[in-house]
Design a protein that fits this description.
With 394 residues, this protein is of the alpha+beta class. The chain is 63% helix and 9% strand. It has 3 domains: 1-146, Globin-like (Orthogonal Bundle); 182-303, Reverse transcriptase/Diguanylate cyclase domain (Alpha-Beta Plaits, 2-Layer Sandwich); 310-393, Arc Repressor Mutant, subunit A (Orthogonal Bundle), CATH 1.10.10. Helix 6 (92-113) runs antiparallel to helix 7 and helix 10 runs antiparallel to helix 11. Residues 23-157 form the RsbT co-antagonist protein RsbRD N-terminal domain. Residues 331-388 form the PucR C-terminal helix-turn-helix domain.
């Protein structure tokens, strides 16, 4: 069952834990002390691979606190990172201690943001559940780490993936691992959800992850680098030519395998632009879910208007403010009017009201917002304002 988002005073979990780079720095400093040889100290502890893993885990904790993840984290990312530490000589106790220290730092941040005992109690319960999930995963993979050949291969691929998405020395990592570095990559960002409530969560998670990996690495793309979990993930697919055929095939395969349970974004870029492409892909998926619902496979070209309208800044705030204080019925009527291409009768049918009621509500919208939906410029402004408003409430 989906849990409600926790608020810490007047701040969201994302604002408290992701609002400042200082939080990730504090976590890195805390975990460095568990194994200075492996993690380094001071400036050395800010290595790109450590920071990237810490930031991904910060997002996982935020998802748990905001109720957008039902106890799932990026298992494959967690396990690949942990196995890499084990193979470098880290003990189980040092890796487990690093996660416990990191969670402790996050708890301190939350406790500074609110003194509400009920909120802190619920936050503690969720974070302990999250930590239990992590500890179990670490223990399982520590036992499996004796599988040296498989571990070495996964380690090399994860190291190259991490270097690419974090902007580290990917060429050097490729040389050390013996893997080939492509000139261009297709960046695929996935958001997945379980579609069969009758299947146990752990079984469904394994099936979802395996099915996604087969699709991504299939059709002659065994060199794809992917970090996947039951909630989705990111894949980097080497490109040797145009990407249209590959993109179309992936969209069709994902649609067949997952239907509405998979929302994806695709960005093709030169190798040096992979970090920015990953961020863009994640934004596009969020916009697609907000504006089109689940099940879409999108590119930036398909969401140019929605993407630009959702950018933070003075214009974004001003557009959103135009709709401040306007009732939900009027907002819903405007959205229906735009969806139907400006057909007032179709809008009335969709809203189950008389066409005159549609006219009244849209007229009221024009008076209150200063934007006339019957005018092409006004309609464009209202659509942009609605996108900004939905982004603010997401």
């Amino acid at each position: 069952m989906t849990k409600s988002a926790l608020m810490f005073g007047d701040r969201s979990a994302a604002d408290v834990l992701l609002g400042s780079r200082a939080t990730a720095n504090r976590v890195i400093a805390a975990i460095a002390a568990t194994n200075p040889v492996q993690h380094g100290t001071g400036a050395a502890s800010l290595a790109a691979d450590i920071r990237w893993v810490v930031e991904r885990n910060l997002r996982a904790v935020v998802a748990v606190l905001e109720g957008t993840a039902e106890g799932t984290v990026d298992d494959e990312l967690l396990r690949a990172s942990a196995i890499r530490r084990f193979d470098e000589g880290s003990s189980f106790s040092s890796v487990a201690s690093a996660y416990h220290r990191g969670v402790s730092v996050l708890w301190e941040e939350l406790a500074r943001a609110t003194v509400d005992p009920d909120v802190l109690s619920e936050a503690g319960t969720r974070m302990l559940g999250h930590l239990e999930h992590i500890t179990v995963a670490l223990a399982e993979d520590y036992q499996r780490s004796a599988s040296a050949l498989q571990s070495v291969e996964r380690d090399a691929r994860f190291a190259l993936f991490t270097a690419l998405v974090s902007g580290a020395d990917a060429a050097g990592e490729a040389h050390r691992s013996g893997l080939e570095l492509a000139d261009r990559y297709g960046v695929l960002v996935l958001r997945l959800s379980a579609s069969d409530p009758d299947v146990p969560i752990d079984v469904a998670a394994r099936r979802i992850t395996r099915r996604a990996r087969v699709i991504i690495e299939g059709d002659g793309h065994p060199d794809a680098l992917a970090v996947l979990g039951p909630a989705g993930g990111t894949a980097l697919i080497p490109l040797t030519g145009g990407d249209e055929g590959l993109r179309t095939a992936l969209a069709a395969s994902l649609r067949t395998a997952f239907g509405e349970a998979c929302t994806a974004a695709w960005v093709s870029v030169p190798v040096e632009e992979v970090p920015e492409a990953v961020t863009l892909g994640e934004e596009l998926v969020s916009i697609a879910l907000r504006e089109r619902g689940s099940g879409a496979f999108v590119t930036l070209d398909e969401l140019l208007f929605e993407y630009q309208a959702s950018r933070a800044g003075p214009a974004h705030a001003a557009l959103s403010a135009r709709l401040s204080g306007i009732g939900e019925e009027t907002i819903a009527t405007a959205e229906a009017y735009l969806r139907t291409g400006g057909d007032r009768r179709a809008t009335a049918a969709a809203m189950n009201v008389h066409p005159n009621t549609v006219d009244y509500r849209l007229g009221r919208l024009a008076v209150l917002s200063g934007m006339d939906i019957g005018d092409p410029r006004g309609a464009a402004l209202i659509e942009a304002a609605l996108i900004a408003r939905r982004g603010d409430s997401a």
